[in-house]
Records
---
Amino acid sequence: MSKPDYLISTPENLDLHLELAGLGNRVLAALIDTLLTWTLVLLLVLACTLALGLTENSPLLDNLRTVIDYCVIAVAVLLALIILFGYFILFEGTWHGQTPGKKVARIRVIEQTGQPVTWPAVIIRNLIRTVDVGLMLIGLACMLVDRNERRLGDLAAGTLVIRERHPAEGSHSLKISAGDSNHGFVDIGGVTPQEYELLVSFLGRREHMSKNERPLLAKKLDNYFKVKLQAHDSTERPEDFLEKIYLAYHARAEQAAD
């Protein structure tokens, strides 16, 4: 596993290790997203040109034709601005910190606390994107200087970009019991990548915890995930329930990859 770059101490007294996205992954994601947005803008320009051509050859009065042309251009400019700004805000807000480019690069925007990114943070970081990109790539310079690789938008919004670890990564070191209790159904649709990281962190470190600390933390996580997943009727031991969540999350990732 790659060396973690960012450490968060959680309320459960666990250290959540996250790997920062890295400059290469962020540049790759930015290139993909830029290509997609400008492709949409190009299609918009072509549609605008076609519309202007139709009005030019239509039997309209010159004054009316001029008004229509100005309206078409104004709408096209407005839609272009919506695409250039709204693309990142829409995807990061609805895809929990990811855009198509970030999804390909397997990186994600999160809050500095380790929680999923919120809409206000998404809006702030992307409104400042024009400053980061426009002023001689000042955002790139900030990322090179900041220890957590944050651009101005991240600093203002209180966010950072991490590499999203696939559930299969690092799982070889986990000791999971093969008891029947782990084969039951559990709906893990509400488990976020950050919560999965927290779960993996506990399962990977529990063998090295003290006899008093291990059951205490297991119980805290058990209570947290039972409330999160509305599994109050579960009577399994805390660690058995946590292992079941891990296996269900892992199985879902494997199905998505097929």
---
Amino acid sequence: MKTVIVACRTLQAEIELAMEKTGVRHHIEYIESGLHERPAKLARIVQELLDTIEADRVLLCLGQCGNSMVGIKAGSFEMVLPKVDDCLSLLIGSTKEKSRLSYQDHAFFLTKGWLLGESTIMSQYQKSVEKYGEDTALSIMEMMYEHYNTLGLIDTGTGPMDELYEQTEDVAKLLGLSRKTYPGSVSYIEELLTGPWPEEKFIVKKPFETVKTEDYNGMI
């Protein structure tokens, strides 16, 4: 049985670790990481890619991401998706646990993959500086992140956390946020790679079926 993984580039390190731990060696097609900020474009790119894939099963390592997966249609293959709102919940373990931690600490979560992506907090700031000047850019950033107190650095076991602390020092200073490490895991990704796929954690679509809004009901 031929299986293909379609995943956000942001999760590359975690997927590689999960594959190492499980021994799975499926072909992977990565999607540009910055697309999670543009759900309509993300949906279009994913569908265009799926339409080119010839396989028996496709594992979509993507969260719901602003409803971008709603309306996605399987080709002549079975399609499996994690039942989570975004990729951060996939790494923390569940949508509810991410929401609980976010509410508890007013945390904005980051991983190394997010810091290496096309669109980061600092790149957003630099673009605003170029367009509006430093004072206005800072005001914009403060407004965007005013509800957060903490930069939540997720330790997924893919590398030293010291590096992540160094890389987020400027962001923390810019926004006046404290930093805190939260335990992450690739176990959800391991389950996606190997199965079985219980309905409380995964959406399983038969060939030519479409992902619906209600498929995400009851996210754990």
---
Amino acid sequence: MIWGELETGLAGLAADGVLRRRRVLDGPCGPDAVIDGRRVLAFCSNDYLGLANHPTLVAAARDAAERWGVGSGASHAVSGHLRPHEEIEQRLAAFVGRERALYFTTGYMANLAIAPALVDRRDAIFADRLNHASLIDAALLSRAEHIRFPHGDMEALARRLEQSGARRKLILTDAVFSMDGDLAPLPALFELAERFDAWLVVDDAHGFGVLGPGGRGSAAHFELPPSPRLILMGTLGKAAGVSGAFVAGDQRVIEWLLQRARSYMFTTASSPLLAAALLVSLDLIERGEERRARLRQLIGRLREGLDGLPWRLSPSPTAIQPLMVGSNEAAVRLSERLFARGVWVPAIRPPTVPAGTARLRISLSAAHADAHIDTLVAALHDCARRD
């Protein structure tokens, strides 16, 4: 029976060291976490600028709840598009320098919207092999030919584009790769999109708010032009500290998504209080150079402190600092040893990362103190000495 198959499958996950454990936090997002009554130092969240529990955002959400209520009541296309939703779309478009933006409830849903609305089985998607799961799922849902190229390999991508006879071409990539922390070569990708008349869709989940002048993201960091072929997706629950996501680009593309993207059309709009909080968050991001400078300082402190460990720290310039361990069992064991010392760093295993590349994903935030970094460094060195 199917129940036995499920039990066997779960036992197999446990045996392979990939069974996930969900922890319950008894407090707001921040470096100091409380789990089962125990305080630990957390290096887990994507709250890169430390805004998730910022008092100004909390006050904005509270005030908006009193004015707009909690729920939107319907999809955007019916009656759920409230004034805060409209205002955040306009602000986001202006902020990233694009003609128009569309606000989504999550980044996953935003990614599921783009490719299936723009291409079909007559077309081809060219995707980096390390793209996020939401981009992979979007490519599969589109029914277009899904052509993957080795991570960051522009020569391989150029060959695949040249060989393709597809009606439409769409290049799909993360901007900052969430498990490695490295940046996609966006200028080279944009040049190939121009040469082969392709769309370039950039998932900037981990760059928005952190990279570029004023935190405007990876496209601004690389000074890409506001081309109609460039489509940006950014999430608003990471550096922005709230929830949701947006897609920004040419107004014709955005209108088409509004009319045809199923993950936008057929879902209830998010709470207006979140959109209102995001309006305040954008102000904090734009004025947040001190936070971004602080984050860069912490990255340097961590990398210097972890020099000489038996585990390799990937060459990431971002807040995502992967410590490569290797086997699933070793990564889980190291994570548990740190947790016993009051330091919480998650072990990342397949299928999230390729087999044999299990790692600890250290996520830094501007809310971390120097002492927090020093505690993590000391704990890892202590674990290394005791191996």
---
Amino acid sequence: MNVMATFPSGVVVVTAYGPDGLPRGLTVSAFCAVSLDPPLALACIAKTSNTLPAVQHTDGFTANILATGREQLARRMATKLSDKFEGIAWARAQSGLGGPVMEEDAAAYAVCTLQQTIEAGDHWILIGGVVDGGHRPGVAPMIFSRREYRPL
């Protein structure tokens, strides 16, 4: 539906760790703040996502808000490749919760513990309690609108 593609959104890579301890991730365009007190965020993930079982396994996720100029990374994370993280810099959050933090590629990140999942059509809405996060001053986030990546 073209009306949905027109709405500008941030570009976020949701990450988690699989049962094997290896990173999983996918690009999402549906991510937003839900509440400031307590701090809650939501991300929408397709039911067919290979990352969903990792989010369920770790009971959490990290939302990496991609920086401008990271179009190739966004496209790579939107695929079903099994080696998406090969050659990608990432680190574990200091809290040990959530998924990989992509500090070099993100303008900001939020580490979340899974609070609730809501079924919505062909997606799951993940509501996470934000327990950690950070941002890179002076680094602008990338947006997605009309099927194109754009600087903010």
